[in-house]
Design brief:
The chain has helices spanning about 20-30, 55, 65-75, 90-100, 135-140, 145-155, 175-190, and strands spanning about 5-10, 35-40, 75-80, 105, 115-120, 125-130, 160-170. With about 190 residues, it is α/β, with parallel strands linked by helices. The chain has a 5-stranded parallel β-sheet with strand order 2-1-3-6-7, sandwiched between helices. It has a two-stranded antiparallel sheet with strand order 4-5. Helix 1 links the parallel strand 1 (about 5-10) and strand 2 (about 35-40). Helix 1 packs across helix 7 (about 175-190). It is globular and about 55 Å long.
Length: about 190
Amino acid sequence: MGRICIIDGHPDPADGHLVSALAQACAEGAGDAGHEVSMIRIAALDIPLLQNAGDFALAPAEPIRDAQAKIAAADHVIFVFPLWLGTMPAACKAFWEQLARGGFLLDTGDKPDQWPQRKMKGKTVRIIVTMGMPALAYRLLFGAHSVKALEAGIFRISGFRQIRHTIFGGIGAIDDQRYADLLDQCRKLGAKGA
């Protein structure tokens, strides 16, 4: 069995969000299947905005170092977030920027002109996105642009060997049955660890 880190990317610390329920369902499925599970809830973290390149080279403060340790220990990462204004919420972007500090995701060492060393080699990731628009419209009309940018600009460049995504659209008007179906799908994704 593997080690799975699940990241709840909803920026609101209040309870009751679908994204948080999906992240929890992934954790339940992974735990029931015998995987070792760690969780990161972005809304619970104090995440300052990164404002200059000099700070990017330095190691981050707690609690980001704890998040780095959880991701470093994981074989598989599940990142769940809501689509806001066509991309992930600002708190998620700030989280990934802070997480990447100090050469955590990739490192050029003392030669900034060389291709970076990919620090996440061998890990896999599943991106789960919720949105109000139909998933098919997001894929066909918008080309799933923000998911593709996330896959290439964060995960692929840092060495994740397998990147998969799941898009749940039309969540603004889901009924109880669809809600239960989405939770069940996430339990299965957590159990698979892929």
